[in-house]
């Protein structure tokens, strides 16, 4: 009886107060999960920031590499230019002389058929005379620069020497032989008739004038 009574006492309500119910916090398991979510979000954000920083650094390095490569190419180009200038330095006087002569030629062509001074033609013709050759007559047409030279020489070889001297003087553009003949039967000398072209350029007026007369 005692055992049964005790079992009933345990099973029934107690006169001492309400029955004890254990307390359970249902929110407790959710708190660690929220913290994990926040931590994961911050981790992702930090990873994104780190990736952006890494991208900026890589871009900066790439720009620096391109700049360095460009500087190297520029330095090589400057070195090649300096080497080319050093190689051309000995040729510069020749090139400059050619340019000067070309400009002078163009200036002379621009002048056209302007008449030259007759004194310059006479002086050039007399300066080329070999020994024993006399210039008896000189005719000069300023319109076209044609020159006719007549005179006497001791031999045919002397006439050839005079023609060569006129050509080598650099004054006349063309020189040719029109006629060479013996003066007469038994004559020792020859008479020559030469043609030439004066340059198309103005020559400063100086000494002498167009005329006829003996050579120097």
TrEMBL record:
It comes from the Bacteria. The chain crosses the membrane at residues 44-70. Keywords: Membrane, Transmembrane, Transmembrane helix. InterPro entries: PilN. This is PilN domain-containing protein. It comes from Thermaerobacter composti.
